[in-house]
């Protein structure tokens, strides 16, 4: 359903959590990590992170691994553990990203943009998820503007549309013209019921 919170599943601990979309706080631009991503709500939010010599390697929000390691998305907002294998949607990465490192007063390979592209079905379920991350190099002791994007796209469902039922409506006249006064059929209407079958 629209506005349902997107859930994540950590297979190693069997823990269900929430896909976070960091956002600026109410009184500052500093990132707050509690904002949940919601189904069918595409959004782009920007907020700032403090980058120091220590946070460069210690702050997980600057590390690309944080945004895909150890968890998957759930197809629908269910927390029934026994159904998890059927509900898990792995996150596909468009690349491999190096971890941040501090070098000569600079912080290298820090996350500047996180973009999830989530495809969904006509049933309102998540079908697949792709992650793209942009990295940058910056100086230590600075504020980094980070962008967090969630985009929803309807998945193209492949399959064949085949007829599964047929009804016939016959149009007939009780009284015809003088040349044909008896009851007679005027025509027929054929109505096919179709269903899509996956290949």
Automatic annotation (TrEMBL):
Domain of life: Eukaryota
Signal peptide: none
InterPro entries, per the entry: TCTN1-3, TCTN1-3_dom
Entry's Gene Ontology BP terms: cilium assembly; smoothened signaling pathway
PANTHER family given in the database record: TECTONIC FAMILY MEMBER (PTHR14611), TECTONIC-3 (PTHR14611:SF4)
Subunit structure: Part of the tectonic-like complex (also named B9 complex).
Protein name, entry field: Tectonic-3 isoform X3
